[in-house]
Write a structure and sequence with these properties.
By secondary structure, this protein is α/β, with parallel strands linked by helices. Helix content is 24%, strand content 22%. It contains seven helices and 18 strands. Helix 1 crosses helix 7. The model has no long low-confidence stretch (mean pLDDT 89).
Length: 358
């Protein structure tokens, strides 16, 4: 730990994924200098944001809608390489090209109200006192594990998407995949090729989307997520309102019966899962592809949450504290949304800095 006391500067960016790097890029363009006016903090061990933790079988060619960071295109990537490697190398090159000087690994424990209109950002390398904060912590660090009766009695293995190793570890096993999102379907289709049996369980019937998904459809989906955030409700993922794309791999899996969905079970038994009608299946593994929640617990001392449980945001600004901006949160959780949110947050932050004396 570098115990430098409390260091004053203009802006702290927490997180160096797509949203954080986009914000840092636009802050640099606005004239803020990394290391003097600006610091970017990232708790991950290396560049790549949450992508660095993705399972090896998620190759770059399987990634849907990865948009380049502002100012530097990602071109010529090998679609057969793991996305963790491709995007990690790209983010690393981006940080070095623009001189963003990301500090890592740095853990942020709390953000509090400070003196003279400043915030206090308490970290593993000391305390920063910025005039504004851009929070870009995403969701990967908060996997959501639902609770069901009997869960602690299960004698097999339980794991979440966050620790999914790829399909090889499921060879010859009976696997229950829980979750109707993109990760759940990918896990299911992969494990079905090597597992003895697979079962797909979701709370709601999955919605498969046929036909093109253009800008108009994208804006409509983002608007639905944005409306929840404006009302102070916890954000949903954009995928939850777009449906699952019906590509050739999904069509084939449906024809083969891999994507035959079962309703949610009622309880977990030592040997598997059970439904209200008495049906049971035996399982060796329960794979929870049940999504993530926003990683914003470090902001708790600022009391930003609304009664509905979320942080109410207008554009990217937290309504309860105009010094705090959230990017990669709710409607800006997609890669293109994160880029736009980073630019939008910096416009608002620079107006704030111009209006308040240092």
């Amino acid at each position: 730990m570098n115990n430098f006391g409390t260091r004053e500067l203009d802006v702290v960016v927490i997180g160096a994924g797509q949203a954080g790097l986009s914000a840092a890029y636009h802050l640099r363009r606005a004239g803020l200098r990394p290391g003097r006016d600006l610091v970017v903090l990232d708790h991950a061990p290396r560049p790549g944001g949450a992508w660095q933790f993705r399972w090896p079988s998620l190759t770059y060619g399987k990634v849907h809608g990865m948009h380049s960071l502002p100012g530097m295109e990602l071109t010529g990537a090998d679609g057969d390489r793991p996305s963790s490697e491709v995007i990690g190398e790209y983010f690393d090159a981006y940080e070095r090209h623009f001189g963003l000087e990301v500090h890592r690994p740095v853990d942020v424990s709390a953000v509090r109200d400070g003196e003279g209109g400043r915030l206090l950002v308490e970290t593993s390398e000391g305390t920063y006192a910025p005039r504004a904060l851009i929070n870009a912590t995403g969701t990967w660090d908060r996997p959501f594990w639902p609770r069901y009766p009997g869960q602690e009695t299960f004698r097999g293995r339980q794991l979440h998407t966050a620790s999914y190793p790829g399909p090889e570890g499921f060879a010859g096993l009976r696997v229950v995949v829980v979750g109707g999102g993109a990760s759940g379907t990918q896990h299911l289709m992969e494990t079905a090729e090597v597992a003895a049996e697979t079962y797909w369980v979701t709370r709601r019937p999955p919605v498969f989307r046929e036909g093109p998904f253009g800008e108009e459809e994208g804006r409509a989906a983002v608007a639905l997520v944005e409306e929840r955030v404006r009302r102070g409700l916890p954000p949903q993922s954009v995928v939850s309102v777009t449906g699952l794309p019906l590509n050739e791999a999904v069509r084939r899996a449906r024809e083969q019966g891999v994507l035959d969905r079962l309703p949610m079970f009622k309880r977990i038994t030592p040997d598997g899962v059970a439904w209200p009608d008495g049906r049971t299946v035996e399982a060796d593994v329960i794979l929870w592809a049940t999504g993530f929640r926003a990683a914003v617990d470090h902001l708790a001392p600022l009391k930003l949450r609304e009664p509905g449980g979320g942080i109410r945001v207008e554009d990217t600004r937290a309504v309860r504290d105009s010094r705090v901006h959230l990017v990669g949160y709710g409607p800006s959780a997609s890669t293109i949304g994160a880029n736009r949110a980073g630019r939008q947050a910096v416009r608002s932050v620079t107006r704030l800095l111009d209006s308040v004396p240092a």
